[in-house]
Amino acid sequence: MRIRTSERMSYRWLFxxxxxxxxxxxxxxxxxLWGVVRDDGDTLRRSPTLALxxxxxxxxxxxxxxxxxxxxxxxxxxxxxxLISIYSAAEPDISPETRPALVTLPDGDIVVATxxxxxxxxxxxxxxxxxxxxxxxxxxxEQISFLDHLGPCMVRGEADHVYLTTEGGGDILTVKISPxxxxxxxxxxxxxxxxxxxxxxxxFDEAGRVTVAGxxxxxxxxxxxxxxGSLVWSHVEQNLSGPSLxxxxxxxxxGPGGVVVLAGNPESPCGQGEIFLKEFDALGGTVWERMxxxxxxxxxxxxxxxxxxxxxDSDGDVVLFANGIxxxxxxxxxxIYRFGSGGLELWHENFDASGSVDVAVRAALDQxxxxxxxxxxxxxxxxxxxASWNPAGAELFAAEWQGNGGxxxxxxxxxxxxxxxxxxxxxxxxxxxxxxxxxxxxxxxGVPAVSAWGLLVMALMITAIATITLRRTSxxxx
Length: 478
Fold this sequence. Notes:
There is one protein chain. By secondary structure, this protein is mainly beta. The protein has a domain at 1-28 and 450-478. Helices cover 10% and strands 51% of the residues. The chain has 2 helices and 34 strands. The protein has helices spanning 5-27, 452-477, and strands spanning 31-38, 44-52, 58-66, 69-77, 83-90, 101-104, 110-116, 119-125, 131-136, 141-148, 162-168, 171-177, 183-189, 197-204, 210-216, 219-225, 231-238, 251-254, 260-264, 275-280, 286-292, 296-297, 300-301, 303-312, 318-326, 332-339, 345-351, 357-365, 371-378, 382-389, 395-401, 408-415, 420-427, 433-440. The strands form 9 sheets. Strands 1-34-33-32 form a 4-stranded antiparallel β-sheet, with no helix packed on it. A 4-stranded antiparallel β-sheet has the order 2-3-4-5, with no helix packed on it. Helix 1 runs antiparallel to helix 2 (452-477).
């Protein structure tokens, strides 16, 4: 049967629509949606932090220097994209290298904390930037470590309280701040051996208990308080080979049933470069513990590991994020481990980007169990790199961003419920500006997400198929 010229043209048009449809669908999955560099002339910005508000809008905070005057800035990032400045306040002698502590509250308020020549300052603002309070933290010295809040896990009507931890004269200072900015309670934890300690992380469990981790010369302290500030339990995980100045940060995560997981880098018989991982029950008892990695070569771990974060998913599996230097080639790689019951290793993946040095800076675990890492890779300059894995350890997505040249590094990453991954970073193209990137990830169920253009093309394609089919049926009937 000969195909008429008009039909041939219709099929060609249909084929072209199919190609467009394929592009429309693929462009909406695992691809960069946009990238924006915040450049205001002589403004110097570094180390922006990110958080999501209740509507899924991304909030960013950063320290800025404009014409020699330093500021704290808060931005709201829309989908278009637009970087909408909603708050700016002068803060003397705050360094643009400072990474502000940022959190959003269930009522839409935003809390940001910074360290400057005035000490640690906590500011609370409304959703549109209206000031609520500005509070200096009594007894706080040095740099703030982390700031967070319970959000939906808060109990006893405390959803709008804020918890903060920082260093207090060689001890770990933990503070609970009331909605009006007053200090509800303040607690100091001193190392039992009299050594200086500094906090590194703070988390909350479903019962409203706050747990703080730190580092010191002799080990990694961990202390837990209830919502009234009463001590629940404390522990110091001693270095396995005596005092050391080589300790890195330690990290915490909470899981089902009130378990707490600690990850850090103590000195060990294998030398510096192993990660100590331990799970505590709700009473502070040991559930399991292990070293990562477990093998040594000539007195050193085959891969010298540095913990970057730890998380626990809804099934109780533990996900460890780390950087590792491979002794056989000296290259640095991202590493992600997932451990099941009893600390059994379920899988381990390492990420090799285009450079010889791949460094994870921030990591996140979403509600679907997907793992997200943002950092940088060195390959003719530092490129901002982002990667994601599914719960089984299969790589979902990886991207490098070089902009218009120069060096770039990620400083934070968040993901919303629709699978949009937002990355903040620093770029040294000119005087040091903040950069924001957004990517769309594959959905959890594996069905490609289709953009609005993709849906329109699908509708046109279906209409075309129906039209051609009806014409051929009508001719055949005639």
